[in-house]
Fold each of these.
Amino acid sequence: MNHVIELMKSHRSVRKFSDRQIPRELLLELIRAGQGAATSSHVQAYSVIHVTDPANRETIAELAGGQGYIASCADFLVFCADMKRPTEASERTGANVVRGMTEQLLVASVDTALMAQNVATAAESEGLGICYIGGIRNNPQAISDLLRLPKHVYPVFGMCLGYPAHDPDVKPRLPVEAILKEDYYADDREHVEAYDATMQAYYQTRKGGLKDSTWSQNLAPLFDTKLRPHMREFLVKRGFEMK
């Protein structure tokens, strides 16, 4: 297995960072690596906000659910789906631009995720740790206001970057047999049940017996309530009307 594949399989979320700073040129190289990701029709429908103001970082940490490592990491980025730039560029050529289509929301969101994952892999190749912050969607309007995001731009997630101050274990993933299906969609319950046993053993080891749970049980809070029900109204107000 080559070193790139090994690196990609070794990802873990890092939430404790040293005081060591990331050189500015390295940060720029990480963003350039992000730009190398695949992008739908070369639209490049993303922008990245590098949040350096300590007060803003503290505010975002609270808005994201009290995640203090947003304030303590070396650098914090907010990855935004951006349909403002490409639609306005098209409009300047004389095109009669149609905005608010669901496909535009999907393109911008997927472009942003692909770009961010390239940044994450590049960062880890340089010995950095990263942690995605989906919690910024807890209060997306407040964060949009704080970052002065214009219409047709929305914050998808944040990312903490820094040199790790701890060495967390790699969390087991689902068996590849559950994910890769040949020719048609096949039932994967037996693989999920086996994975639940794997995760239960993992938590027992990692938490010193203090956590007795499975993957399926951990999903319950995500699906037995309406998770972030404000997102649809927020996206419509942002100009992503999902027409």
Note: The chain has a mean pLDDT of 96.
Amino acid sequence: MKSLFLFLSLLLSFFANGQNLYIKTYGDKKNKPIIFIHGGPSGNATLFEGTTAQKLADEGFYIIAYDRRGEGRSADPNATFTYKEAFLDLNSIYSKYHLKSAVLLSHSFGGLVATLYTHKYPQNVSALILAGALFSQQETYTHILDTLKKKHSNDSQQLKKINIVENLDKNSAEYRKGCFELAGENGFFKMPNPTTAYTKLYAAYEGGKFYKSNIRNQNAPLLFYQNEKQNNIDTRSILKKIKASGVPIFGIYGKQDGIFSSAQIKSLKNLVGKNHFTLLGNCSHYLFVDQQNEFLSNVKNWIK
């Protein structure tokens, strides 16, 4: 009776909290499960799906890709965009696919979701992979602005734009948006020297079905900052606790990812351990596209 009650509770949780979730799986469900957690808020998993999901599955994994509630293809006008809501939806995925534990492969803002989830539910996570993932938000924003001030030191118009952003409320959606917009305008997210493999991969994505479903909810960041108190955090103390609990943590980052300072990268490498960390050359923020083969090789070697 107790087991039946638990099953019905989990089933109810899925239908109540995850009925609007876009979820797609790749590979054999008998293989080790990996849940991909995309960036945002306002992101989606289309780039990962359109370029990398099946290839990672071909390495012998069961890949679960999804869009968080209210983001991308998981339309929900009642979404609150809080970490609590993200946890409920992750738990509904565990329930739906009967997972005892899974690897969390997290990108960008998804790293914050995955880290906080792992801290709350360590028994559910067999490994945490931070792939170009955020872990110290204010340091990232400060680094972006400081880098641009040096770059545009003789450009009064650019310095004025930077100054406007710098003087915004540090715990606001406008501040986050301003920092990342400036980073995008200055090529912080682009592969430094595009290779033939990268060019072909991105062209295939842009010509395929996933690019056509690259839906962005522009209200998501505003609602996140409105509803979530933990909106500008540093998770390194939490990562230390996760490591101490026995959950393996791995980090893989692009050497030319402009949103992270060398000091940030060094601190994370020291935290997870040099054998659990890789820095990819000629690589920026979307490392699973920029250096796909190396990305796949590292994930496979770590998890298998």
Note: The chain is about 50% helix and 15% strand.
Amino acid sequence: MSRTVLCARLKQELEGMDFQLYPGELGKRIFDNISKQAWGEWQHKQTMLINEKKLNMMDPEHRKLLETEMVNFLFEGKDVHIEGYTPPSE
């Protein structure tokens, strides 16, 4: 039985994640308020960000930057700006 959440990013009732994928309080907030679909969108953006900015996940500063971008994307409705990336036109 899948669970649904009112997704903070997509503003609709959608399938929630099966388990908490991110640690701590923020992870719980994501689990409770972010759909699988929105998390998938974030994963895509995150990969692009890591590649674009050549982030090292061992570096606490880089992890902090990524976490800030994640919160902005998932909860503040902000899009991730990737240098030199042009989204496909609708």
Note: Strands lie at 4-6, 13-15.
Amino acid sequence: MKELLRTNDPTVIAFATALLDSEGIDWFTFDVNMSVLEGSIGIMPRRLMVLDRDLFMAEAVMRDGEIDLGRD
């Protein structure tokens, strides 16, 4: 799996996963349960992962949805 997106904002993750679902791209979120360690204050970013073969298409979907991937 490859990292597509890393963010502390749960609304960005929700929007990104909705966009990926609409294109039939499988995804998985890492670090969701880190809130146990951080005390639910949201300092640990969540990572949105996609399969290696889907990365190019997923990045295009994020660009079309105007989601900043933080890479230049």
Note: The CA atoms of residues 4 and 49 lie 5 Å apart.
